[in-house]
């Protein structure tokens, strides 16, 4: 797991538990190692020692380049990757830089005047000054494209998942991403927000804007974690 707050034991407890629920459901055990994205120092080849890489949620600029580098490396090396919330956003940036040749692609949360704002503030919140109060919170419905990995995972055309974010994928880049091999297999119910990204040609490269860990229970693993752990166990 590559994240910003890995030195704090309980920072990602829900994600850790979701991984354990998923691994138990397929009769495997999971060994979780934590890598601090801020002190990564470009030593990306250490990721070769892992069966899969998960990037959990987070905010802010600190450690963001380490996560972008991580997503890029898993993309290049065909290592199973699951990005949650911030991990979804920075995977988008990694793909934009690597596969779409979008120079200086970034998030306006990280660089406000970035040349290519792959990730931008939610439109309805650009005039908000209260960061905590302006988050998009709670359960929202998501439409899932048929014949996608996401549809295979959830076996449904629509799901409801919990969210907590202020930034989102900038849809003006959607066609460019599609042309270069990334699809957005999950959208908000009104089709204006991208919720799930995937790369069909990759062993497992999936990002979700929501927080699936909150739907995982012992004996009832959340489906995206179960699929990720299965892919990692076969790597």
Description:
With 235 residues, the chain is α/β, with parallel strands linked by helices. The protein has a single domain, classed as Rossmann fold (3-Layer(aba) Sandwich). It is 27% helix and 23% strand. It contains six helices and twelve strands. The chain has helices at residues 13-25, 64-77, 86-99, 149-154, 174-179, 223-233, and strands at residues 2-3, 35-36, 53-55, 81-84, 105-107, 116-121, 136-144, 158-165, 167-169, 183-188, 194-198, 205-208. It has a seven-stranded mixed sheet with strand order 3-4-12-11-10-7-8. Strand 10 (183-188) and strand 11 form a beta hairpin. Helix 1 crosses helix 6 (223-233) and helix 2 (64-77) packs across helix 3. The longest helix is centred in the first third of the chain and has 14 residues, at 64-77. The radius of gyration is 16 Å and the shape is globular. It starts with a strand and ends with a helix.
Which spans of ≥5 residues are poorly predicted at pLDDT below 50? none
Shape: globular
The tally of strands reads 12
CATH classification, class level: Alpha Beta
Given helix and strand content, the structural type is: alpha/beta
Strand content: 15-25%
CATH second-level architecture? 3-Layer(aba) Sandwich
Biggest sheet descriptor = 7 strands, mixed
Helix content: 25-40%
Number of helices: 6
Would you tell me the overall average pLDDT? 90
CATH topology: Rossmann fold
Give the N-terminus to C-terminus distance in angstroms.
Answer: 16 Å
**CATH superfamily caption:** Class I glutamine amidotransferase (GATase) domain
Task: Walk across the major sheet and give the strand order.
Answer: 3-4-12-11-10-7-8
How many independent structural domains?
Answer: 1
Order of helices and strands: EHEEHEHEEEHEEHEEEH
Round the Cα radius of gyration to an integer and report it. 16 Å
């Amino acid at each position: 797991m590559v994240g910003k707050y890995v030195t704090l034991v309980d920072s990602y407890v829900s994600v850790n538990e979701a991984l354990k629920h998923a691994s138990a459901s397929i009769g495997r055990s999971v060994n979780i190692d934590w890598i601090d994205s801020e002190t990564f120092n470009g030593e990306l080849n250490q990721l070769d020692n892992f069966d899969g890489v998960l990037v959990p949620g987070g905010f802010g600029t600190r450690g963001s380049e380490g996560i972008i580098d991580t997503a890029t490396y898993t993309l290049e090396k065909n290592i199973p990757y699951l990005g949650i919330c911030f991990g979804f956003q920075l995977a988008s940036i990694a793909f934009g830089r690597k596969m779409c040749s979008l120079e200086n692609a970034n998030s306006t949360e990280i660089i406000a005047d970035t040349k290519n704002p792959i990730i931008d503030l939610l439109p309805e919140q650009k005039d908000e000054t209260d960061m905590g109060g302006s988050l998009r919170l709670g359960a929202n419905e998501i439409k899932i494209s048929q014949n996608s990995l996401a549809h295979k995972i959830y076996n449904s055309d629509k799901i409801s998942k919990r969210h907590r974010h202020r930034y989102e994928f900038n849809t003006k880049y959607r066609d460019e991403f599609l042309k270069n091999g990334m699809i957005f297999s999950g959208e908000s119910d009104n089709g204006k927000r991208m919720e799930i990204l995937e790369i069909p040609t990759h062993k497992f490269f999936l990002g979700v804007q929501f927080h699936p860990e909150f739907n995982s229970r012992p004996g009832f693993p959340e489906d995206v974690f179960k699929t990720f752990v299965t892919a990692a166990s076969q790597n």
